[in-house]
Amino acid sequence: MMQVLAKEFSSFLNSLIAYIVIGFFLTGIGLLMWVFPETSVLDYGFADLDTLFSMGPYVFIFLIPAITMRSFAEERKMGTLELLLTKPLRDWDLVIGKFMAAFALVFLSLVPTLIYYYSVYQLGSPPGNIDSAGVAGSYIGIALLAMVFCAIGLLASAVTHNQIISFILAAFLCFIFYIGFDSLAALLERGGLLVKQFGILYHYESLSKGLIDSRDVIYFLSVTFFLLLATKVTISSRQW
What we know:
This protein is mainly alpha-helical and 240 residues long. The chain has twelve helices and no strands.
């Protein structure tokens, strides 16, 4: 697994995709937080990072599929996937290694946003007048959300031979998992809350309040596991 992780992560860093993803994410979030008047924290009058954590998932809906779309689709296109499957690697090693490499790149893109937290922390009146517990919960929430999106992207890449189709499918599924269940719940007269609980947004908003509920963490970990299991079953079928 570690060999796959190291190989995948180094391939990200040796290509433009890592720098494009990190640069696009930081630039987009930076503009939303500090420049655009509708979302600028400077116009809020409150020291918070709501813009980062409310808009970040929508940016990830497109950026994470761009990272994962090549994971299996390109391997098959280049004819290297069959070679990997003949090596003394378990299917789980391959899946988890690729998953961890994609998640590590996304996590790396989140680290520089701590500068935004420090800036807002200093801009508070008095300095430090910010809900740090809420910010910590939101960081945990967006990291767990990124895990689910990475797992969705890997599954999408495993079920198709085409990277573009993989990107579109992954972006669509990320959108459905994030906000689709809430939209469906709004159409239902009964059982709306139960339907919302199947979606990411319900649990993500809970974590954003700074309350780390084990049920929310278990939800993200469980969804990630089942998506990775589906990916493992897909590649184990050997029906390329």
